[in-house]
């Protein structure tokens, strides 16, 4: 009853050695249920995937939850590509009132509903509910866990799930937040939040589109440094004005990732001046984002992946004063990229991958003397040949110490 952590790996120990190491009570229990359990393994603190595949009888979980009540950390760890657990999580998990850490990541239950007894775990500081595939219902009990620092919600919740999170004032990390299953107004109370990841849906109700400043602020934390937004193609695109208002509340972020369909970026004034990293993927922007992004004074890394559907991009001078790395991936309609002399004066690394219609590198690259690495991947042989020594575009890159070509077709 005083055990706080217990670790067994049936992959690494012969069955005889494992039996000697197990408590008599567990052995007796397993013998009684040997018809349901293919290879007995009890693992508290960490259950390897080899073990979880054997724990298909719900009773053995209940045994653990009722006999190891002093546990501080419980992590069901996947080590093989077999997610099935085969039953619902027993309500007895609520007996582990001393838990500080609980992770159910990647586990798949046949009963897609978590027990309300999770609300008893008021000492939790980390809760990871990113279970396996499928929508799961989470009871509205997380608000009781006022000591939470890190909360990872399921990737997809059932429609009836609606979680109040406004009491979680100590929260530092919030992952898979969305406005369908959570309340947007609760974010204002999370005054210590450092990282926020929005997943699947983001919408502001009763939004004043004419006067953005009249809308109440969304983020209450002055310490937020990382914001990620992902909305799948099946969902509606994100409204540029809603995004602008969200960004205006994130005055301290230095890392921004947007994976959502959006017609154009908000004006640069809505972006934090501290931004050093921006990733745009699957945005399908119709308007060139470069005139906006070039005005961010501290931007160092810029990544595009299927983020622009226009034919031309233009980086004018002065612009991108501290930009060090640019990655362009799968911009399938891009035909011409122009770079002014004086733009991107600090660029060190450039990667172009699978931009089939791009005819040539921009003229302005020859003025960027700081460029150390150029990587060309999944591009045409004609594009590559232009950059060979003695060919028509070699003068643009002859100063670059490292030029790498991969998977040229």
TrEMBL record:
Pfam annotation, one family: LRR_14
Keyword Repeat assigned: yes
Domain Disease resistance R13L4/SHOC-2-like LRR: 65-391
Superkingdom: Eukaryota
Keywords of the record: Repeat
Name of the protein: Disease resistance R13L4/SHOC-2-like LRR domain-containing protein
């Amino acid at each position: 009853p005083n055990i706080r952590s217990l670790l067994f790996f049936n992959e690494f120990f012969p069955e005889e050695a494992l039996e000697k190491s197990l408590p008599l009570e567990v052995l007796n229990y397993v013998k009684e249920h040997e018809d349901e359990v293919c290879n007995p393994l009890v693992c508290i603190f960490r259950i390897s995937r080899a073990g979880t595949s054997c724990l298909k009888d719900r009773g053995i979980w209940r045994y653990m939850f009722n006999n190891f009540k002093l546990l501080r950390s419980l992590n069901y760890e996947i080590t093989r590509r077999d997610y099935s657990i085969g039953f619902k999580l027993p309500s007895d998990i609520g007996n582990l009132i001393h838990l500080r850490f609980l992770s159910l990541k990647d586990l798949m239950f046949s009963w897609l509903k978590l027990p309300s007894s999770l609300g008893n775990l008021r000492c939790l500081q980390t809760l990871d509910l990113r279970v396996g595939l499928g929508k799961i219902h989470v009871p509205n009990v997380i608000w009781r866990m006022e000591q939470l620092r890190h909360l990872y919600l399921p990737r997809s919740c059932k429609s009836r799930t609606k979680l109040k999170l406004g009491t979680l004032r100590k929260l530092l990390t919030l992952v898979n937040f969305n406005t369908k299953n959570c309340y947007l107004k609760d974010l204002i109370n999370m005054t210590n939040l450092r990282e926020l990841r929005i997943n699947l849906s983001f919408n502001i109700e009763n939004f004043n589109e004419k006067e953005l400043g009249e809308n109440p602020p969304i983020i209450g934390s002055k310490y937020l440094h990382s914001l990620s937004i992902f909305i799948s193609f099946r969902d509606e695109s994100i409204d540029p004005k809603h995004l602008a208002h969200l960004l205006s509340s994130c005055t301290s972020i230095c890392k921004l990732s947007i994976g959502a369909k959006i017609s154009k970026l908000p004006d640069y004034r809505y972006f934090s001046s501290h931004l050093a990293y921006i990733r745009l993927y699957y945005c399908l922007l119709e308007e060139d984002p470069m005139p906006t992004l070039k005005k961010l004074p501290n931007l160092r890394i810029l990544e595009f992946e299927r983020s622009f559907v226009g034919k031309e991009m233009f980086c004018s001078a002065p612009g991108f004063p501290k930009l060090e790395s640019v990655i362009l991936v799968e911009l399938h309609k891009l035909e011409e990229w122009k770079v002014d002399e004086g733009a991107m004066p600090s660029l060190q690394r450039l990667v172009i991958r699978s931009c089939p219609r791009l005819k040539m590198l921009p003229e302005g690259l020859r003025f960027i003397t700081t460029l150390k690495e150029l990587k060309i991947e999944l591009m045409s042989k004609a594009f590559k040949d232009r950059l060979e020594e003695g060919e028509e575009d070699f003068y643009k890159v002859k100063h670059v110490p490292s030029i790498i070509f991969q998977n040229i077709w």
